[in-house]
């Protein structure tokens, strides 16, 4: 098994896997699926796309795709190995019902868990734990810093995810603009990354990456090509590791103007961007 710190092999290194599948590693929230608050539909109601609910929580609809995107995504499952790749915990991921057959592989907790047919691979998780023990400050220290510096006036919730990383749910309008940068400046030298996504502020250890888990999937499947999409700082390593990548016109990467060779910055925003990403995957996978 590859180590947790390994990158996805480049195209030249994947020659041996010429007959292997195309891997499509896609972030979920605000890339492929969208909450009601993140839909970003500003067009007249009569022109708004029909939506399909792909997640419910406490008996209420929570996340959506356009119906067109859902149909195309199911078609994509016949042309590529789909790998949902998310910072969500395993429990949060289990609520999502994507179109098409269940994915054989999925990456949860920002790479902390590699699911194979719905079950976490214990060897992979053990390798991640070893990397975290050697490479960064302990979770307890970072969590204490978050709670000590966050103001109750704008802090709504605090969570520890899978005993791997932590995040806050905040009232963005009340949170000082400088707070996230100050936290990032403190966390960086300690081996942690800070990411602001919607109303959530994530603190994630540097060795915990989506690209490392994707490298393991590529190794196991003998992938001949890797495609990826994401919208946040925690997706940057995933996009850099892929042969081709896409980011929507919203999100942390778009807000900072982030781009890289092989990564297409789409102009579309909101749920329509999710549809355009699936169309791009289909074209790049040779399905259309």
How would you sum up this structure, described in words?
This protein has 288 residues and is of the alpha/beta class. Helix content is 30%, strand content 25%. It has 9 helices and 15 strands. A 5-stranded parallel beta sheet has the order 5-1-13-14-15. It has a 4-stranded antiparallel beta sheet with strand order 9-10-12-11, covered by helices on one side. A 3-stranded antiparallel beta sheet has the order 2-4-3.
Supply database-style keywords.
288 residues, 15 strands, alpha/beta, globular, 4-stranded antiparallel beta sheet, Gyrase A, domain 2, Rossmann fold, 5-stranded parallel beta sheet, 2 domains
Provide a short characterization of the protein structure.
The chain is an alpha/beta fold and 288 residues long. It has helices spanning 67-76, 90-94, 122-135, 139-149, 179-187, 210-221, 236-241, 252-255, 271-284, and strands at 22-26, 34-35, 51-57, 60-66, 81-84, 105-108, 113-116, 119-120, 155-161, 165-170, 192-197, 200-205, 225-229, 244-247, 263-265.
């Amino acid at each position: 098994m590859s180590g947790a710190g390994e990158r996805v092999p480049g195209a030249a290194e994947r020659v041996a896997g010429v007959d292997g599948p195309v891997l499509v590693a896609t972030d979920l929230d605000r890339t492929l699926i969208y909450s009601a608050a993140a839909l970003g539909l500003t067009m007249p109601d009569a022109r708004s796309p029909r939506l399909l609910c792909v997640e419910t929580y406490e008996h209420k609809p929570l996340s959506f795709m356009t119906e067109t995107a859902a149909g195309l995504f199911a078609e994509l499952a016949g042309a590529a190995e789909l790998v949902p790749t998310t910072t969500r915990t395993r429990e949060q991921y289990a609520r999502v019902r994507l179109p098409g057959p269940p994915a054989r592989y999925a990456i949860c907790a920002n790479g902390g868990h590699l699911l194979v047919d719905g079950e976490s691979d214990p060897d992979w998780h053990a390798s991640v734990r070893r990397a975290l023990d050697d490479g960064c400050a302990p979770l307890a220290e970072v969590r204490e810093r978050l709670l000590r510096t966050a103001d109750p006036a704008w802090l709504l919730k605090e969570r520890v995810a899978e005993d791997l990383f932590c995040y806050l749910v905040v009232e963005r309008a009340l949170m000082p603009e400088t707070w996230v940068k100050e936290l990032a400046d403190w966390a960086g030298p300690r081996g942690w990354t800070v990411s602001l996504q919607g109303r959530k502020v994530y603190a994630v250890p540097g060795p915990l990456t989506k690209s490392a888990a994707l490298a393991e999937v590529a190794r196991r499947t003998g992938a001949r090509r890797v495609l990826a999409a994401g919208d946040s700082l925690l997706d940057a390593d995933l996009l850099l590791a892929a042969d081709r990548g896409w980011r929507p016109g919203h999100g942390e990467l778009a807000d900072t103007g982030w781009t890289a060779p092989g990564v297409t910055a789409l102009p579309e925003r909101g749920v329509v961007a999710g549809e355009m990403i699936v169309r791009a995957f289909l074209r790049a996978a040779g399905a259309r």
